[in-house]
Specification:
Helix content is 40%, strand content 14%. The chain has four helices and three strands. The protein has a three-stranded antiparallel beta sheet. The longest helix is centred in the C-terminal third of the chain and has 17 residues. It starts with 11 loop residues before the first helix and ends with a helix.
């Protein structure tokens, strides 16, 4: 589970047919979540895992100028918390493991 942009989307089938891209994860409601290039140099995160519960609510209020959720959505729910934690913990671990390699890229 992960929040996705309302105004843009790419289908799972489009990514599956794309040359040079591997689809790694799909949400329960069949939205792409994570993909990578075949060479592993690019990673594509389609969901907004960076949102915390209050951040999604603030974004909603800013866009709608009011407290009423659209389409009966419960914007106070936080079902992507475990996905968020797992993803960013794994990412930070990977960066830490390869920090010397990344440092040489910026030198």
């Amino acid at each position: 589970v992960a929040p996705h942009a309302r105004y843009s989307d790419i289908s799972v089938s489009a990514l599956e047919q794309a040359s040079g891209i591997q689809l790694l994860a799909v949400t329960a409601d069949n939205h792409p979540l994570l993909a990578t290039s075949d060479d592993g140099h690019n990673t594509y995160l389609f969901g907004h895992l960076e949102y915390r519960q209050d951040g999604l609510w603030a974004e909603h209020a800013r866009e709608t100028n009011g407290p009423e959720p659209r389409n009966n959505e419960d914007v106070t729910a936080y079902p992507w918390q475990q996905t968020r934690t797992t993803f960013f913990d794994a990412w930070l671990s990977l960066v830490s493991e390869h920090k010397d390699k990344f440092a040489s890229l910026t030198a």
